[in-house]
Design goal:
Elements: E1 2-4, H1 5-13, H2 15-23, H3 32-47, H4 57-71, H5 83-104, E2 112-125, E3 130-143, E4 150-156, H6 171-183, E5 192-198, E6 203-207, H7 211-234, H8 268-308, E7 312-315, E8 318-321, H9 332-341, H10 345-348, H11 353-359, H12 365-372, E9 380-382, E10 399-401
Parallel strand pairs: 1-3, 4-5
Antiparallel strand pairs: 2-3, 3-4, 5-6, 7-8, 9-10
Helix pairs in contact: 1-2, 3-4, 3-5, 4-5, 6-7
């Protein structure tokens, strides 16, 4: 299988989006965020190209402006009415980013040996004996002229910076490290640093990955590839809705969102479904109000029965009984120590499925396969509603086993 970090990350974010783009090869409309990032990256590449001199800041801004004019026409805007204001905002943000970056990172003070370089390396899955190809593009590679240290730099136009402790688990940095190590085997792991430069913050975070972290990255890659192959065989790529849906170009065909974009040809089924949706919300709204009323009435009854020392109250409609229930729980750590002393710990404590799920990635592929054979899955249809404030309800209206 041939894949890349961007493809694996797309699969992790939303399997259905991965299918649309990587398997079905449907071309995704370009959003402003994507084209903005591409233009800024192009300008940064231009900044570090010496031909024969490095460009001035004015030349870099001119390059950015020209490129923006050429590529901005391809942008699919979410709101045409706000197009001009939004385009102006993004353009000016790019100028600000490039200006601040240039002031802090004059290109002649770095030894950039490669810009937007393509890479490709092979990864062997020892379990299946399959060889997979991982490819991609690295924004920039610097080499310290006074040592054998190489720095891989990836530019980010997003706002969120990861914590330092999360960098060792960063799949992108791990793949880039493996790519450089495969290209230049003579370079040791301790002489490769990987960095993410967050342009909006004009700040960089980086790490040097050791063998355990790199082994974990390999496990992540191979695990994701196995999942993709399994889903491809079963043709089962579920959508995973989340905040990034707002930036996805496949909303109009995604089963999570396509109903929001109705076709011009309406049918009786469409009208009946729309009526059912409206009724659904009416029922849930009434249900919510009734829950509040019921809770208030319950408190009044409990107070009355406590005051009158009653366990049951009557009316013409029936009677209500107050039952006392108890729920107990143990301090399992303390109980476990006691049970271990008498040799019955393993007999009374059942396996913990959550702990098992966390343990699985560290087991051998053979053991993972054996454990997977013991797993059974039941699917349920659960309807959840979300009001206009985008607050999801955890109360299912209907649950149906299939």
């Amino acid at each position: 299988m041939k894949t890349s970090y961007s493809a694996l990350n797309t699969y992790k974010t939303c399997p259905l989006k991965y299918k649309y783009g990587q398997i079905d090869r449907i071309k995704e409309p370009k959003r402003v965020e994507s084209i903005f990032g591409t233009i800024v990256h192009s300008a940064l590449k231009f900044m570090f190209e010496r031909n024969p001199l490095y460009p001035t800041l004015d030349e870099i801004i001119d390059f950015y402006t020209t490129t923006w004019g050429e590529k901005s026409e391809k942008i699919v805007w979410r709101n045409q009415e706000k197009k001009d204001a939004e385009e102006k905002m993004y353009y000016e943000e790019g100028v600000k980013i490039l200006t601040n970056f240039y002031k802090k990172n004059q290109p002649w003070t770095f030894n950039a040996i490669e810009l937007e370089g393509r890479f490709s390396f092979e990864l062997v899955d020892e379990a299946s004996k399959e060889t997979h190809t991982i490819s991609g593009i690295i924004d920039r590679i610097d080499k310290d002229p006074d040592s054998d240290v190489y720095e891989i730099i990836d530019y980010k136009t997003g706002k969120r910076m990861p914590a330092q402790k999360d960098l060792e688990e960063n799949l992108q940095l791990g793949i880039y490290h493996l790519a450089l190590a495969a290209r230049w085997p003579q370079v040791t792991d301790e002489n490769i640093t990987t960095s993410l430069y967050f342009l909006r913050h004009n700040d960089k975070v980086g790490t040097t990955l050791a063998k355990p972290a790199l082994d974990e990255i390999r496990t992540q890659i191979l695990g994701a590839i196995r999942e993709i192959e399994e889903h491809t065989e079963s043709d089962d790529f579920p959508p995973t809705p989340g905040p990034l849906c707002n930036y996805c170009g496949f909303r109009k065909i995604c089963p999570m969102w396509s109903h929001e974009y109705p076709s011009e040809e309406k049918t009786v089924d469409d009208d009946e479904a729309n009526a059912a949706i409206a009724e659904f919300f009416e029922i849930k709204e009434a249900e919510g109000e009734n829950k509040k009323r019921l809770a208030a009435v319950r408190e009044k009854l409990l107070s009355y029965m406590e005051d009158k020392k009653l366990m049951r109250v009557f009316s013409s409609s029936g009677y209500i009984t107050k039952n006392v229930q108890e729920r107990s729980s143990y301090d399992m750590e303390k109980a476990g120590d006691i049970l271990k002393k008498v040799g019955v710990y393993d007999k009374v404590l059942s396996p913990d499925e959550k702990k098992l799920e966390r343990l699985l990635p560290s087991l051998s592929p053979e053991v993972q396969k054996d454990i997977a054979a013991t797993k059974s899955t039941k699917k349920f249809f659960v309807l959840k509603h979300t009001n206009k404030k985008n607050t999801a309800s955890n109360d299912p209206l209907e649950e149906k086993q299939v």
